[in-house]
């Protein structure tokens, strides 16, 4: 009976989905292309917001439950146990139901844009929600924003595929899903738009702003209708800027930039250290999560996203952050509070690296806000305790978030407008500009690539601020290698070269040895007087007309290949793989591919 009921329920939802799908196909047939695209932005934005609602409510409910239990024992015992369970469950789900693999990090979206024409796997529509809710919701020290962004991107990509939209609209809806997810997570529609454009799409046309803004606004509206304000990261205080504090904001910007570099490098080292364990995925998960549990026991605010603790620090009684910790007896000691906050800021990179390396899923967006708020609080509290100046601690706690977010993600605009929106005004816009720009400049100087894409940026797999590079990164060199050209060996004669030139349209002939290694090439323009003179052809040795070849590796990116064309002043390249001749590449084919991809990308 239960089986029949379950079957009926499944059949009901399937029919509802098919009915809705039919309506959308009908609307597509009667609406203009632009009208249907705008309607699609609304559906994608609403879907992304629903994902945010699910994740936020689950994470908040677990946090409240753990906090209540730990308040009874006055120590974070449950806080320390839940992350172990959450990471183990995440690893189990990935192994048993997701083919043992899940793509983590927002750079996966950029790879999809750069290399896969905006196509994302269907499983990303649910895999990120399930795994990140288990990891972060149960205390893993990462954030939900990266999974939210990937989920939103997957909604947009698969929607476009389902309704047979073109390449350009598919990438646009992907960006719409990202913008809606971020805007719903923070009730910050402008920040959602800027995040999609500044981080996901490095270069975008003005015409693309309207669909992205529609999706972002939809995400915010749906989120506001359901999510209570206390679940989101928001501040109600009216914060204002005092120009006398400008030097201290400059100092905060410098410290934020330096701390960004520390956090990024420590996170990567910790993640690599744990993930490199070769003791089985479950043993690795237990080891890594147990180490994380120890850190959370010492610093309970490392539990989950940590947004609740940020609100406490920016509130009227920041010392409450010491409640239910091993330092609760010293709750009124301001120096103990300073040491605790500073220690938590330093340990966040370790906690995030342990969470990710042991098999958990999440992102570094929330950790960047956590570290920034703690850094801003620590600096302002230290200056106050030293008696140097009465610093507005609330302001520095909030502005610090923008500084670290800007430096870690190389996204100053997103950082500035996100903090401005969650504080309910632009009273701190001047210090936000100061701190974000200084932090970005220092971080960019010491770390060329942002935290999320450093490991893959040099491979040419993602978009950068270089427009030409963005287009070239979409070109796969292996698709243009020609392997049907006739070649010569050292056993051939000049007469053989003459026959090839006279019988084909080849302007050059690759020359290889018996091991198929490239020796050189014979170029028609350079040997024309010899080749078409019977006497000289007969008495000129082949080795005398061979010239050094322009060579490229089969793994070279399109950007590298175009540089080699310029370096050799050649219209062709000989491609080799593992030292062996593979085929030839023509400059014309790459330029034609560049022109074609330029037309399809959202760049003009």
TrEMBL record:
Keywords: Chloride, Chloride channel, Ion channel, Ion transport, Membrane, Transmembrane, Transmembrane helix, Transport. The keyword Transport applies. It comes from Myroides indicus. It is a multi-pass membrane protein. This is CIC family chloride channel protein. It is found in: Membrane. CDD domains: CBS_pair_SF, Voltage_gated_ClC. The chain crosses the membrane at residues 36-55, 75-94, 171-202, 208-227, 248-265, 285-303, 335-354, 366-386, 398-419, 425-442. GO terms for molecular function: chloride channel activity. Its main location: membrane. SUPFAM superfamilies: CBS-domain pair, Clc chloride channel. InterPro entries: CBS_dom_sf, Cl-channel_core, ClC, ClC-type_chloride_channel.
